[in-house]
């Protein structure tokens, strides 16, 4: 922060070019400014206003059914189709407007208008049906950032099938697990992708996963590598382009889904460490996403947004695919790493595409800081008008740098707090409405009520850190399948609810503090989940991989945040007499890459006589995070073995 600037930056009604958003009533008719502003209404009527941003084929009878709390049902009785809302309803007004601009790693470019999307989504939808995919079936999508990724998601939605996108960097084991857990009926993948100068054999990874499932699932393979590479199509495997050609011009009517029907599965990591199947329902999810796309990201027809997230992450679902397309915006999708072919790429993408809204993570911004301001300052970034951040706390320094060197002190920053489970942003400043406060995510959005509570669930006053909880249900909340209800209750509702009084409070797993104005600052996770490469990973999943290595008895993982990116650090204990530490170190790194994915490969593996443990025998991850991030260790008085803290700090510093 520079001294002259107040703690709260006033950009109120100043910098954001607000356009009248296109809104639709429940019959699909465009309405007057209906800006879906929740703040004008009481809960839950505020969400009725937000739902008017969607086109409903059947109006709902109830906004929210609270009878079976905390398994709330939103927009009961209503029917709608996600693909129709993202594509068809725009055709009359913006058929020829660009919906998607894709930039490949090798300089390739493709653009799709809304009409192009309509045609290709319909063809893929017809092909999926032909391959036996029916309404309510699940299709796993294992693709890097290619246009075929959003297209396949929407093709599933069109026929009422659920998509289950698995991050393309996951290893075959992780893919197989995530397919089995949702009983996937088909797979969409690609032959490979380019990583810098080498080729990643995505198809081989997919085939390995399929072989371990021992089922011959219909598989569609996108040709990314070109004619020089054989796609090795086996039985029941099809070339995406051939299918699109065969089904060109198909007319596939969008299947009207109940608002409460699931739209997709996505996996996340919770305290059990096992990846968990998360499910979002059609009407509620789309309402939350459409409303925040407009309110938080100021998206309107024709706005160009570049959200750097992968679609394997909820951020990609909500703000690369659904939010922007529901809003009639133009999506920029850039394949590959932001540093390839060189550090100019991010700025070139913004300049070339006239990006107005740029949404990324603090890790990426820290990398930009490391590269230096000369990169953004050599480009024309005047198209930018709004910046966003998500995924982890952004420090005031990083915020300042982003504000000054990317936003040119002109663009507000929305630091958006949300989760896979929440479906859409729940806490953020609204550009043009709220004042900005670096380091704080801002107030909860209208319609959202939060409380910071202590261990016993008592509300804490401003300034006192505690557990971040959400008091009232919201439309895009997690909607677990019947079989997931038990663990969902245990993981999210049990801690602070009082079922006897029918009083339910959602626990986010985060710790936070509010100020006197209700602005929230996120402290971090309270559970055994760490964020690497912006993916939430249960430490238990990592440790299970690490302890497959002979000689390793116990392990714990920590995330080191440097000025560059977040890296995984592993602490391990060894069997007596293990001498070859280098070999074990390499084996640990390989085991993580093999079982979880290359993206999670640890950058350091250190050996310790013991791990820091609480009296109940739980590893104290918060303490490890302090050590690897050079912060004074906290909470060591609750340790069974406090003497290990000093020893661990010494070992870490010698590494
Ligand atoms: O700890 C919070 C952190 O990321 C967690 C959710 O991770 P995931 O489900 O993978 O979704 C990430 C993208 C929505 C949260 O529990 N988190 C998310 N946004 C922020 C954040 N921490 C601080 N500031 C944020 N803006």
Automatic annotation (TrEMBL):
Keywords: ATP-binding, Ligase, Nucleotide-binding. Residues 88-474 form the AMP-dependent synthetase/ligase domain. Residues 42-86 form the Acetyl-coenzyme A synthetase N-terminal domain. InterPro entries: ACAS_N, AMP-bd_C, AMP-bd_C_sf, AMP-dep_synth/lig_dom, ANL_N_sf. One of its GO terms (biological process) is acetyl-CoA biosynthetic process. The keyword tRNA processing does not apply. It is an enzyme of class 6 (ligase). Residues 541-618 form the AMP-binding enzyme C-terminal domain. It comes from Natrialba aegyptia DSM 13077. It holds the Pfam family ACAS_N. Belongs to the ATP-dependent AMP-binding enzyme family. PANTHER family: ACETYL-COENZYME A SYNTHETASE, ACETYL-COENZYME A SYNTHETASE 1. This is acetate--CoA ligase. Its EC number is 6.2.1.1.
């Amino acid at each position: 922060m520079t001294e002259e600037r107040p703690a709260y930056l006033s950009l109120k009604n100043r910098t954001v070019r607000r356009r009248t958003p296109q809104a639709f009533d429940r019959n699909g008719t465009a309405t007057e400014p209906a800006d879906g502003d929740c703040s004008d209404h009481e809960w839950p009527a505020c969400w009725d206003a937000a739902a008017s941003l969607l086109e409903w084929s059947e109006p709902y009878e109830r906004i929210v059914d609270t009878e079976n709390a905390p398994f709330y049902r939103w927009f009961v009785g209503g029917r709608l189709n996600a693909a129709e809302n993202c594509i068809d309803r725009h055709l009359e007004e913006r058929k020829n407007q660009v919906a998607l601009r894709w930039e490949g790693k090798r300089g390739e470019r493709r653009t799709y208008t809304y009409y192009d999307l309509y045609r290709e989504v319909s063809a893929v939808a017809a092909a999926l049906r032909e391959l036996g995919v029916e309404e309510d079936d699940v299709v796993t999508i294992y693709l890097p950032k290619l246009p075929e990724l959003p297209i396949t998601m929407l093709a599933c939605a069109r026929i009422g099938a659920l998509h289950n996108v698995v991050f393309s960097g996951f290893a075959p084991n992780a893919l197989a697990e995530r397919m089995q857990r949702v009983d996937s009926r088909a797979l969409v993948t690609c032959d490979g992708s380019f990583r810098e100068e080498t080729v990643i054999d995505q198809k081989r990874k997919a085939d390995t996963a399929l072989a371990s499932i021992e089922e011959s699932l219909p598989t569609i393979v996108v040709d990314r590598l070109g004619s020089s590479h054989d796609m090795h199509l086996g039985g029941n495997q099809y070339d995406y382009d051939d299918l699109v050609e065969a089904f060109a011009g198909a007319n596939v009517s969008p299947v009207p889904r109940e608002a409460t029907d699931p739209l997709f599965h996505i996996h996340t990591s919770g305290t059990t460490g096992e990846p968990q199947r998360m499910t979002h329902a059609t009407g509620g999810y789309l309402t939350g996403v459409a409303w925040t796309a407009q309110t938080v990201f100021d998206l309107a027809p024709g706005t160009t947004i570049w959200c750097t997230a992968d679609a394997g992450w909820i951020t990609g679902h909500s703000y690369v695919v659904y939010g922007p397309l529901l809003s009639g915006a133009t999506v920029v999708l850039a394949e590959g790493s932001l540093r390839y072919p060189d550090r100019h790429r991010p700025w070139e993408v913004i300049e070339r595409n006239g990006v107005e809204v740029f949404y990324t993570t603090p890790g990426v911004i820290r990398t930009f800081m490391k590269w230096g301001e000369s990169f953004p300052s050599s480009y024309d970034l005047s198209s930018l008008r709004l910046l966003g951040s998500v995924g982890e706390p952004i420090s005031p320094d990083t915020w300042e740098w982003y504000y000054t060197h990317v936003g040119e002190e002109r663009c507000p920053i929305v630091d958006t707090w949300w989760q896979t489970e929440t479906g859409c942003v729940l806490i953020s400043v609204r550009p043009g409405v709220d004042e900005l406060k670096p380091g704080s995510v801002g107030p909860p959005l209208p319609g959202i009520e939060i409380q910071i509570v202590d261990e016993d669930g008592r509300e804490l006053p401003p300034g006192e850190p505690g557990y971040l909880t959400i008091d009232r249900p919201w439309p895009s909340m997690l909607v677990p399948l019947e079989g997931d209800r038990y663990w969902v209750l245990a993981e999210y509702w049990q801690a602070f609810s009082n079922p006897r009084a029918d009083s339910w409070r959602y626990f986010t797993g985060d710790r936070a503090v509010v100020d006197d104005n209700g602005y929230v600052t996120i402290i971090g996770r309270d559970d055994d989940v760490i964020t690497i490469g912006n993916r939430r990973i249960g430490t238990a999943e990592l440790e299970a991989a690490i302890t497959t290595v002979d000689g390793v008895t116990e392990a714990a993982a920590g995330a080191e945040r440097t000025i560059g990116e977040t890296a995984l650090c592993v602490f391990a204990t060894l069997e007596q007499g293990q001498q070859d530490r280098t070999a074990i170190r390499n084996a640990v790194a390989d085991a993580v890459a093999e079982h979880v994915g290359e993206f999670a490969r640890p950058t350091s593996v250190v050996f310790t006589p013991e791990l820091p443990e609480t009296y109940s025998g739980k590893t104290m991850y918060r303490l490890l995070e302090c050590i690897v991030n050079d912060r004074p260790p906290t909470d060591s008085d609750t340790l069974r073995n406090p003497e290990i803290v000093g020893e661990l700090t010494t070992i870490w510093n010698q590494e």
